[in-house]
Hints:
By secondary structure, this protein is of the alpha/beta class.
Amino acid sequence: MDERVVNSGCExxxxxxxxxxxxGNMPVSVRELTKVYGTVTAVDHISFTLAPATTVALLGGxxxxxxxxxxxxxxxxVPTSGEVRVxxxxxxxxxxxxAHRLNFQSPYVDLPSxxxxxxxxxxYARLYGVANxxxxxxxxxxxxxxEPLLDRExxxxxxxxxxxxxxxxxxxxxxxxxxxxxxxxxxxxxxxDWIRRKLRDYARDRGAxxxxxxxxxxxxxxxxxxxxxxxxxxxxxxxTPRALIETFGRKTLEEVFLDVVRRxxxxxxxxxxxxxxxxxxxx
Length: 283
C-alpha cells in the first residue's frame, strides 16, 4: 500500500519521508521548538520553515520569544524540546558542519571593544574559515563604506558605527543564511535606508535567506516576503505582510503590530465607499 494518506479532498498528503526530504533542502526547519526557563515558557511549541532566497520577519512585542528563537536557531541556546535543522543538520549535534554557511548580526551584541575593527573582522573571518582574509575584509569594508573605521578601536565607535561594523562581520563569510536582530538600530534615516537596500540586494544576488527581528514596521514591509508573528512564545500568524494587514483589517503593518501587543481582536476590513451598496429608499 502507498504510504500516502488520502485526505477528504482526494489530494494525497506527503508521507513523513517526503516531508523530511523537503525540509532537508530548507535553510531552516523548526519543529515543535520550546524553551522553558523555570516557570516561564519563552518559546512554546513553534514550527516553521524558511525557504531558500526568501526574507522572513520575526515580529512580536517584548518578551514574545524572538531573541530566544534566534539564539536557538544559532545553536547558542539548547531547546527544552523540539528540533532545529539548518541546511538539514540538527543544530544540537551537527552545528559545526553548517556554521560557516550562516551568520548573525545584532547591535545589542558588541564586538570586543579593545580590538580595532580590522582585528575583530580578522578574528571572525578566521573562525568562519574565510579564504584570503585581508582581501575579503577590504572588500566588505569598501562595500559597507567603513574603511575609515578599520583601524579604530571598536569600543570608541558611535552606536551607528558599531552597527555597521557588526554588519561587516555578518557579511564576511557570504552567508547563505543571515539572521538579523534590529539590523538598522542606531542608524540615521539615510544610512538605514541605504543598509536596507544592501540587504535586499544581497538576498537577491546571493540567493540568501534572511530572518530579521525588527520593531521597524516600515522596514519589515519593505524587506520581508513573509511575517511570522509571535505572541507569548507562540506563532499566531504566518503570512505575507499584505495578507496580514488584510487579515487584521488594518492599513499598515504597524497598526497590526499594535493590535497584537495591546491584545486587540481582529477587525473586519473596511470596504471603500464606492463598494458599499446604497441604502434602499423607504417605499
